[in-house]
Amino acid sequence: MGDFGHELWFGVGLVPKAAGGERLVRQAVMAEEAGLDILGVQDHPYQPSFLDTWTLLPMLAARTTRIRLFPDVINLPLRPPAVLARGAASLDILSGGRVELGLGAGYFWDGILAMGGPGHSPGEAVEAVEEAMVVLRALWTPGDPVVLQGDHYRLDGAQPGPFPPHPIGVWLGAYKRRMLELSGRLADGWVPSSGYATPEELAGLTKIVDTAAEDAGRDPGDVRRIYNISGRFSSLPSAEFLNGPPAQWAEQLAELTLKHGFSVFIMSADNEYALKTFAAEVAPAVRELVGKERAGVGATAAGITEASGVTQSGGVAGTAGMPRAGAEAGAEAGATRPGAEAGTGSVAGEAEAGAMARKGSVAGARGVARVSGPLDDATRPRLPERDLAALTATQRANGRRLVQIHDHLRRELAQIRDALEQVAAGQSEAAALRSMINELTMRQNYWTLGSFCASYCRILTAHHSIEDAHMFPALAAADESLAPVVERLEQEHEVVAEILTGLDAALVAMIEDPAGLAEVRDQVDLLSNVLLSHLAYEEEELVEPLSRLNLNI
Question: Which end of the chain is more exposed for a tag (fewer CB within 10 A), N or C?
Fold first, then answer.
């Protein structure tokens, strides 16, 4: 149907793991501070390792002031709609009108049945959603007591209220025809996820929604299109969906807005570096691309990014835990270096680029990791760009190996950050309980964290030593123009080595005094900021020469 002209919203989807409660709150605050528009939280009440979504959302509302809140999507079989109506309206009142409501028919039926929920057939699940929408809207509308005799839900004189201060959108997760048609007939929004509805499939699904809306006498534009997405940020463009630099992401998302009317994009992010990149680089570029098209002025994301002085940064948007927003609906019926390849299936580090107020100074323009001092991006030598697509697949594999090695370092860095959060959570518990057992457990945790970090430091140091002794000399000997870049990378290795020395000292102090955990966190933050900036720079400048010169690493 094309672009409906809706305001564009960008958000982040949170996986409500109980082990990372403090981290979820921090990510929510960070998303708001970064300028994102909406927070999505998965709802799987049968999942014992998850926090309850309807308990978490008020906590996030209390810690934020502007960002919208969206259960993505509610497991309706375990959430009675009359109670859900009261809860959603209450949260909308308390949050100042910031709630949108996602509904799903139910998907993981074994878990639903284990929790005492109903065992709907596919057709019954769709019918239950339609009845639930009637219940929700009736109880949000001032008037007489509500009577409803449905096959799945009954109201026998329920009083409406409380009343939300803004019209809460009811967005349906849907993939199959009956739920898609229900979305078109009655819903305020439709929520597919890229893991279950690929961009290539959206045209056919959108047509079903649009046709159902028109048959019901509605404008298809009355149905907002919300897309849950996951992908990978990389300095290397690719032909894959959301696997490349921020400019590639922007062009692909803008196309979904202009061709299929999607106006809300919620990225599943299991690391904060990806969150910041999405907010600072992707969202503004999509808005500008779409704005220019709406105004009749053509543009490309690469051109926008280049004009704004943004350097493409590496990193990974979270792919773990990608919601089927709509997974709950599954029960129904049934660029800078064009042509470059990127490794797939990797998870980059938990980078927090720009979160370095405590250690080091970050210029952080539009979310790019730019560190003042030794890693100042503006002073880094740059090579002329070459087209990787002109090389053979065998040649490109040489450069791709460097990215794969770096991805391993990013993954382990993310694990260190997770270990930090677990130790911090355990420390809080120990302080509260004042238990000798917990004291001993915490001491063991500190030793474990210290060993983990020390091991990572050794691996990273070995990697840099190999590069300094073998890869860098081979590059400089094969192509003299690479000498300034190689020299700069060697200098940055020394900076990283100094940070590792500081981290090692902080770890020793922490084992002696648990209060030293704060200093370890500072050092890991600094390492994240500097190392991820360094890895991205190295990939941008050396992947092509390694490929072109047939240098094996």
Answer: C
Residues 6+ apart with CB under 8 A from 400: 341, 342, 343, 543, 547
Taking alpha carbons only, the member of 376, 399, 361 closest to residue 234 is: 399
CB 13 within 8 A of CB 42: yes
Cα angle, residue 281 at apex, residues 276 and 284 outer, rounded to 5°: 115
Residues of the chain with pLDDT under 50: 303-324, 326-374, 427-446
pLDDT at 371: 38
CB 93 within 8 A of CB 165: yes
Closest C-alpha to 276, from 348, 381, 375, 196: 348
Find the helix or strand (DSSP H, E) in which 38 lies: strand 38-41
Give the side-chain half-sphere CA count within 13 A for 477: 7
Provide φ and ψ at 138, rounded to 5°.
-65, -40
Going by C-alpha positions, the residue among 382, 506, 524, 514 that lies closest to residue 460 is 524
Q: How far apart are CA 307 and CA 214, in angstroms?
A: 42
Amino acid at 364: G
Query: Which pLDDT belongs to residue 425?
Result: 64
Provide φ and ψ at 218, rounded to 5°: -105, 155
Per-residue pLDDT at 471: 87
User: What's the whole-model pTM score?
Assistant: 0.71
